[in-house]
Structure prediction request, 317 residues.
Amino acid sequence: MLVLDTNDLPRGDRIAAYRAVAMDEGGIDAVEEEQPEETVWRRVEVWGIGSLTLFDSRGTGIGITRSLRQARRDSLEAVAVVLHVRGDGAFASSDHQRRLAPHSLSLLHMPDGYAYSWSGTGGTLAFMLDTAGLTVPTDTVRASVPLLHHSPVGTLLVNHLHGLHTIADRLTGGPETEALVNATTELTRAWIASVAGDDRTRRRTAQETLLTRVLAYVRLHLREPDLTPQRVARVHNTSVRTLYRLCGSSGFSLEQWIIRRRLEGARNDLAAPVHRHRTIESIGRSWGFTNAAHFSRRFSRTFGVTPSQWRRISRTG
Prediction:
């Protein structure tokens, strides 16, 4: 939901309007603009997704600060996972400082305060959630902040964050919203525990978040033909038997889940005008189906029409 676009405001009101939004939505108490008021541009969108808040912020160069004084004043017990989307950025918290290239992921622990900035036109995509839901000790959260950019789980979290942003306008607050919040929280827990905490905490978190991490990994690599249960098990340091048992206890087959998601992706591409020039075989191949006949059979069995019939229907519908 659009909260602010300074292009809609008189030039003299733009900086003050953004500062009000930043304070209200993120507990930020200092804003330093890189450009003069007449050239400042800021656009902020915010979505409430259950207990999670999603932010999309972009604009001209800026520096924002949440001081320790402000953190003590508002007692916001939350973390924000921030994806630096564009611009030359920087992040500082406590004694940790880091330069941020596009696609860098950072964790902001609200009780500790932070400084965040970018130069030129930049932007971030972020979500905030209560620390209580993470069930991770505060010391572990703090210890993870300087180390998280080394974690392989970050790649899964980036992909998940982009997915949340894509569907944010279509979420209705039903059971799927609660499931998405749970999955987001579990991935954040796994991200933190992968670099901080004792061995016992890491093992427990890895076990508790395994299914969430598996499905996030599968979504990320869905188009790759060699995405097999054996590969998924190997990447997650578990056995294929354990993987099958985990998925079975949740009521689905991993192999069939992969095939279904690939078929849905191919169906969307077949209907999209941007892919009209592509052959059916190339679309199937781009979703991991190396055999055109097998793709056609599975598509027909799942959706009741052949790929070519679906393409004609979607063009005339």
